[in-house]
Amino acid sequence: MILAPAIPSYDWSQALADLGQISPIATLVGFMLLAIVSDLVLPRSRRGGVVAMITVTGLAYSLGTAVYRWIYAVGGPAYYGMATGDSFALFFDIIFASLGILTVAISHSYLVKRGMRESEFHILILASVIGMMVLAAATSLVTVFLGLELLSIALYIVCSFARDESSSQEAGAKYLLVGGFASAFVLYGMALVYGASGTTLIPKIATVLGSSAAGNPLLILGIVLMGVGFAFKVSAAPFHMWTPDVYQGAPIPVTAFMSVGTKAAAFAMIVRVFEGGLPHLAPEWQTLLAFVAATSMIVGNLMAIVQTSLKRLLAYSGIAQAGYILIGVIAGGQTGLEAVLYYLFVYMFMNFGAFAVLTLLAGPDGDRDSFADLEGLARRNWLLGLGMTVFMLSLAGFPPSVGFFGKLFLFTAGVGAGYTWLVVLAVLMSVVSVFYYVRVLIPIWSPSPRVDGVPASFSSRFAIALSGLASLGLGLYPTTLLIAGQIGATPINGP
Amino acid sequence: MTLTVLWLLPLLSAPLIAFMPPRFAKWMSVLASLVILLIAAGVAFLFDSTWHGYQFEEQVPWIPQLHVFYHLGVDGISIWLVVLNALLTVIAVLATPLSTKNISKFLALMLAMSAGMTGVFLSVDLVLFYVFWEAMLIPAYFLLWMFGEGERPARAAIKFVLFTLAGSLLMLVGVIGEYVFTGQQTFDLAQLATIPPSATIQFGLFFVFALAFAIKTPLFPFHSWLPDAYMAAPTPMLVLFAGVMGKAGAYGFLRIAVPLFPDPVGWWDWRWVVPALAVAAIIWGALMAIVQRDMKLLVAYSSVSHMGFIVLGIFSYNIQGQQGAVLQMVNHGIIIPALFLFVAWIADRTGTRDRSALAGLAPRMPVLAGVFLIAVLAALGLPGLNSFVGEFMTLLGAWERAPVLAAIGAIGLVLAPVYLLRMFQGAMYGEPAGPRPSGDIHAGQLALVAPLIILMFAIGLYPYALTQLMASVAQVGLYK
C-alpha cells in the first residue's frame, strides 16, 4: 500500500485544460476579484452601481461559457478527478448563473431603498454562486465539502445583512449555528464513507465498494449522517426548523436567492454523492430519503396553511417542494434525474418570481410580507399582480404551468420506480397546498381602496416578466428543457 | 386545424376582450362564440357516422420522452358535447347583462372556461385531457369568486376548487398509473382501451378516476360543493357551469372509466358501486329538490337527480343505456340552463326566488309562463319532448343490466313531477300574491331561449337524428 502516492507531473497545458473544464467557475472567480478591487478603489458613491455591473457581466459571461460548453458537449474530469465539467455540472452552472443575474436584477433597487451597502452584497452573492457551482462540479468528497462551505459562509453573512435589524441578525446567527451543525454531520458521514472505501473520489467509491458493500454498518451510518446534513441543506423535514426563521429574517432578495440556490445546490450534492458514489447502497439511502420526503410534504404543506407572513408561507411551501423533488431523487435512474433537473430549473422561475414580487413591496423601513400588503396588487401594479398569480398557480401545480409538468415528470418517475404510496401522499398534500397558494391570490384580486402604486425598476420588471413567461412557456413547450435534463442526467448514470 | 381553432380561438380572444370597453367586449364575445358555434356545427355536419374512429384528427408530438401527444379528435360521443358547449357559450354570453360589473373580465373568463371544456371533450390523449380538465378550474374559480352572488362567494369558490382538485389530483396518479402499469407506455385513449391492465390494478385505477368524475358530476355522497357553488354562480355562468361542466364528469366516466377498465374487480366490483351511487343521486337529488323553497336551489338539486340517470345509463354497459346517456347529456344541457334562466328572470322581475312567496304569476307574465311550462314539462320527461327518449333509453339499458336499478331509478321519474310541478303551479297559478312582477320577459330574452325550446321539441320528436350519428365510437368497450 502506497501511503504517499507519487505526485504526477503537472504542466501548463494540463493546468489550462483543467481550468477550461471549470471555466464557468474560474470566470466568476476572476470577476469576483475584480469586483473586490473596484470596491476598494472606487469612490463610495460609484461603488454600488459599478460592482453590480461587474457582477452581472461576470455572471453573464459565466452563463455564456456554460451554455457554449453545454451545446458543444465538451466536459470531463479535471484536477485528477476532484472536479468535473460534465453536462450535469454545466446544467447547474446555467441555473446558478441565471439565478445570480435575477438576484442582482431585483436587489439593486431594494438595497438602495433600504440604504444597505450594495457592493459587499453583490460580492457575497457572487461568492455564494461560486460555492454552488463548485458543489455541482465536485466529484470528490473534499471538493463537495469545499463548495458547501463556500456557499454557506457567504450566505451566513448576507442573511444578517440588515445589520441594525434584530430579526436579520437572528437569521444570520441561526443559519450559522444550524449550518455548522449540518456541515459537521456531512463531514462525519464523509469520514465514515472514506473509512469504508479508502478514497474520497466519488466515482472510485462506487467501484471500490462494489455490490458487496450492502449492509456494511460503517457505510449505513455514513449514509444516515450525510443524509441528515443534506436534508438540513435542502430544508427537508424533520430538519427544517431553521428555514422559516431564516427566510423571514433575511432580507428578501437573499431569501429569494437562497430558497432556490441552496436547494438546487444541495440536490446536486445529493445526486452526486448518493446516486454517483453509493449506487450499491441505493435501498438504504432510498428508504432514508423516502422518510424525509414524506415528512417534508406533510409538515411543509400543513404548516404553510396557518402562516400569516408570506415569507414564512413560502418557506414552508419550499419545504414541501423539497419533498416532491426528493421523489425524483429516490426514483433515480434516467427518468428520475431528468425530472429532478427539470423541476429544479423551473422551480427557480416560479419560486424566485414569487419572492421578487415581495421584494418590490418592501419599504425603506423594512420588508412588507403580510397578506394585507398584497391588497389590490393587481390594480396597483398589474405586472406584479399577474406575475404573482402565475407563480402561485404554478407552485400549486395547475396546468399548463411548469409546476404541473414538473410534478407530472416527478410523479411518473416515482410510480415507475414503485413508489406509488409516496406519489399518492404527494398528490393528497398537493390538494392541501392549493388552499394556501390560492389564499395568496385573494388579496391580490379583491377590490381594495388602496391606490398607492408599487414602483418597480426596469431590471425588476424584467426579472418578474421573464420568470412569469418561463413559468408558462416552459410548460406549454416542455420538450426542450426535458431534453436538456436528459443530457444533464446522463453522466451520472453513464457507463 | 379545425379542432384546434375550436378551443384556441376563445382562449386567445379572452385576454383581448378583458381589456375592451363593456359594450364592445360583449359584442366581440358574441362574435367569437358565434364563429365557434359555426365551426362546431360545420364539424357536426361533415361528421361521418359510419366511421369507427376519431375524425378531424390532429396529432403532434408534445412531450416525446413520455409519449405524450397533442392529439385531438371527435367521435359520436364528443361531437355532441362540443356543439352543446358552443351553443351554450353563445347563450351565456348573450345572457350577460351589460350592467354586470367588470363585464369585460367576466366575459373573458367565460370564454376561457368554455375553451377549457372544449379541450376536455376534444382530447384523445390522457395527459392532454388532464391538462384541460384542470385548466378549466382556474377561470371557474375566478368567476365564482369575483362575480359570485350571495354572502360568501369566495368560500363557495374555494370549496368547489378543493373538492374538484381532491379528485382530480388523485386522477393524476391514475393517469401515470395507466402509463406505467399497462406496460405499453402510451397515453392514447383509443389504444389504452385495447390493453387493460390486470384486474387488481384496474380496481385501483378505476377508483382514482371514478372519484374525480364522481365529484365533478356530482354523484350522491360527493355533491356537497354543488349547492354552494350553484347558489354563488351568476346565471350566465351557471348556463355553462351546470350545462356543460357537470357533463365533463359524466363524459369522463364514459370515455375513460368504462372502456379503459372493463374489469375493475378486486375487493368488490366497481361496476355495481357506481350505478348504485347513481341511483342514490337520483333519489337524493329529487328528495332534496322537493324540500327546497329557493327555486335556484331546487333546479340545482334536480340537476343532481338528472345527472344520476346519465351515469346510470353509462354503467348499464349496453348500447341503449350508453346512447341514452349521451342523448341525456345533451338534453340535460338544454333543459337545466333554460330552467336557471327562467328562475333568474322571475327573480329579476319580482325580487325573490322563494317559490312559496310567489303565486299567480302566469296571468301577469304570460309569455314567461308559456315557455317555462315547456321547459318544466321537458324536465319531468313528458313524451314528445327531449328528455323522455333519453331517460327511457337509460332506464331500458339499466333494466337489461339489473331490473332493480331501473326500478329504483324510475322512482326519480315519479318524484320529478312532484317538485317541478309544485314549483311551477305554486308560482304561476292561484290567487296572485307576493311581489308584483315589473313586467313580462322581453323579446330579446325570448329569442335567447328560443333555440333551447326548439331543440326540446326537435330532439323529442326526432331523436334518431342524434342517435344515428352517435353510432360512431372511437374506442372498443363502448356500446356493447
- Strand order, largest beta sheet of chain B: 1-2
Termini separation of chain A: 28 Å
Oligomer: heterodimer
Number of helices of chain A: 20
Task: Kindly report the average pLDDT value of chain B.
Answer: 90
Distance between the termini of chain B: 32 Å
SSE topology string of chain B = HHEEHHHHHHHHHHHHHHHHH
Determine the fraction of residues in helical runs of chain A and give it as a percent range: over 70%
- Give the low-confidence spans of chain A: none
How much is the average pLDDT of chain A?
Answer: 90
User: What's the number of helices of chain B?
Assistant: 19
* Share in helix of chain B: over 70%
Tell me the total number of β-strands of chain B: 2
By secondary-structure content and strand pairing, the structural class of chain A works out as: mainly alpha
Q: How many beta-strand segments of chain A? A: 2
Major interchain interface with per-chain residue totals? A-B, 32 and 31 residues
Give a quick precis of the structure:
With 495 residues, chain A is mainly alpha-helical.
How would you sum up this structure, described in words?
- The complex is a heterodimer of chains A (about 500) and B (about 475).
- Chain A has helices at about 10-20, 25-40, 45-70, 85-115, 120-135, 140-160, 165-195, 200-210, 215-235, 240-250, 250-275, 280-305, 310-330, 335-360, 375-380, 380-395, 400-415, 420-445, 460-475, 480-495; strands at about 75-80, 85.
- With about 500 residues, chain A is an all-alpha fold.
- In chain A, strand 1 (about 75-80) and strand 2 form a beta hairpin.
- Chain B is mainly α.
- Chain B has a domain at about 275-480.
- Chain B has a two-stranded antiparallel ribbon with strand order 1-2.
- In chain B, helix 2 packs parallel to helix 4, helix 7 packs antiparallel against helix 9 and helix 7 (about 155-180) crosses helix 10.
- The interface of A and B includes residues 399, 409, 431 and 445 of A.
